[in-house]
Amino acid sequence: MLLNLEIMAGHHLLHNRLVKAPIHDETCVDGYITADTEKNYYERTKGGRFGLVVVEHSYVRKDGMASPTQLSSSRDTDIEGLKKLADIIHKNGSTAILQINHAGCGASRSFTGLPSVSASNISVTCGWPDSKPNPDLPKPLTVSEIHELEDCYIAAAERAMKAGYDGVNLHSAHAYLLNQFFSPITNKRTDEYNGFTIEGRTRMHLEIIKGIRDRIGSKPLFALRLGGCDYTEGGSTIEDAVKACRLFEAAGVDLLDISGGTCCFTRKGHNYPGYFGDISEAVKKAVHIPVLLTGGVRTIKDAEQLLKERKADLIGVGRAITAHAGWGMEML
Ligand SMILES: Cc1cc2nc3c(=O)[nH]c(=O)nc-3n(C[C@H](O)[C@H](O)[C@H](O)COP(=O)(O)O)c2cc1C
Question: By the 8 A CB rule, do 153 and 57 touch?
């Protein structure tokens, strides 16, 4: 079975190619984990079924909270709870990385108490397909504010290391902040972070990658989740994803985690296993690091078939595990 084959991701040997995708479960209070968060991670990663577990998105700064029940990596006091999750996953036998995120225009003043920020003053549906865009238009970040926010991503990555994670997953998908910089739909800037060149659209990502690598070194596993395509006129294209992924690889990313852009994590009219496979297949042909594909996988057979078709090197599963905590036990 291809799914059972080991694979290197950076310096880390993953014992198989099945990945638990990040799923924000709405169980945190004031950014801290609860007993329910611990229980869910224990039940859903039991037995070490997954070569890699990506812990749900954590906000790197309060004005980037995607919801009131989201996990935080924005404060040193978060480290203790983050460590509990890393320990659970490690004891269950999997490699663990923490996703770090800023929601940009997806953060609402109603629960952050703060104005939202973005690349431009445009608000779109973020995170959840068909949810309503934030009615408050975000404030475009100045260049010095971009640099300040980059430092927050870097500090969050350092906290993940202190909490014992094997690495981080930088969130640039589902129309959240880094995706807002990447997509020409949400990035109308004309400065060096502009929305009309790949260099401008990925400058913030590349500065964060460099900043994190400088601080935590080359050993930790660095994954980047890219909303590779918007599947809409005037949005990001598969060709853009390929160009960006080449830049991310050159900057020191170890694993490319492919998902959707402003369409979020689903793709209208496409419900088959691996519905973002057109992006991951094109990226896989263009880079030398492993590529992860998530979306629509319901059975182990689906995952194996996608590997056989060379759509990706690893396969992520989200909702099927939420529905059945023991999903994938047959892998053992
Ligand atoms: C309830 C829920 C929470 C999610 N939370 C996150 C998250 O924290 N970070 C992320 O990148 N994607 C998140 N996603 C997207 C999933 O990681 C995954 O890409 C999506 O569910 C498609 O895969 P699936 O068909 O296997 O569920 C979430 C999806 C759902 C349904």
Answer: no
